[in-house]
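pinning this so it doesn't scroll away 📌
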Amino acid sequence: MSTIKSEARVLSILESVGSHFILLKETLVSIFRPPFDEENIIKQMLEIGYKSLPVTSVTLFFTGMVMALQIGRAMDALMSGSSIFIGSAVTIAMFRELCPVLTALLLSGRVGSSIAAEIGTMKVTEQIDALRTLFADPVQYLAVPRFLACLIMTPLLTIITDVTGVMGGATIAFLSLGITPDLYFSNILQNIRLADFLSGLSKSFFFGAEIAIISCNSGFRTTGGAAGVGRSTIQAVVTSSMVVLISDYFLTYLIQFIE
């Protein structure tokens, strides 16, 4: 009996993974197939990007403050006066890891849950079946705008959080460590590389695509009425958050060979 359950669990996992790749393929194909719904894409960009700006900016601003406070004091404890290098330390950490990853995790919670709930509600209320009867492709109508919006807005939000995170570090460096803004930013310009910025930015494209595909797939696979919508929403948030963190390791590993 336990063997049968284990096999069923493995088959369920493989089916879930396969459904995500099938949806990704259908979405990529549908992007280049007319008609093109520019209005819906812009609407999703505003929903995903603009409305997520306050939570991502505030979160990364204070993350930068915490980073500067913790690292600066640790540096001074090891070697007095070494906290003057806090600018480059905070910036490299923000650009390479914290900003792209934390921004993606915040979007997984806010945007992923919204996408899964919206599409899941349409599924259980048979609105998606109604689209098919009208010869409208649900993937093109629902998944493509959200996929493109996540693909565009996640990197843009990451760029903004890069700036706010660095500014948060500058704030605490001045208020707590006595490092003037000109010294803070000159240290950044002396030690930061373009590769530090591009590595985090390139990750955000993958994170945005992962959030969109996982959330849309959870919505399309929703069953069981209102309770099913709740399960799909939780599944979308948990799965997309885990995939972001797992893929971050592999992307970091690959980027090391490119640089």
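📌 and the second one:
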Amino acid sequence: MNVSLNPRKTDFRAIAICCGLYFILGFITWANGTLIPFLKLSLDLETDLQAFFVTFSSYIAYFFLALPSSWILKKIGFHNGLVVSLVILGLGALIFIPAADHRNYALFLTAIFVQGTGMALLQTAINPYISIIGPIESAAQRMSIVGFFNKSAGIIAPVLLGTLFLKDAAQVTERLNAAVDAATKESILAELLQRVHAPYISLAVLFVAFAIFLKFVRLP
């Protein structure tokens, strides 16, 4: 008996979307690294341990969301999982705004943790998804392609955010050291933290817009 085989075709639109999602994963991961020196300066953190809680807050989210992410994806599916993860990333980005306005260290860590939960869900959904949207024998090639975008974000994020956040850092430090009273110092730090607004509002808009796009686009 002859059996007609219909191998799965590669969906290039889905791969392009996955490239964008992997770029986002890389960007947020490396953005957290840039936040360490920025928050240490702008929040006047006393120890390096406090600064390194920035990355800890992100990675601990993976610990708490590892098993729940699988359960969530079983309930809502891969497609909706991608959408929800982007909305969570957008929410985390928005929390940066009140954190900056109130110079609240705990709120910054909360924002980073929320974004970490979004990344955990996104990564749990997208890693197997990129393997199944085309022939299984070319899965490694697809992983290499999206990995390139992930690593590219790791180059762009520190340069872009470092330029925005740590511009004139030496001069700011000099001004802080020269401040004669607490009010002047608070004013300098508040001005420094305003640099958070534009990039993280832009990221929130981007993530939510991408989520809306994904909600209505047809994916395999």
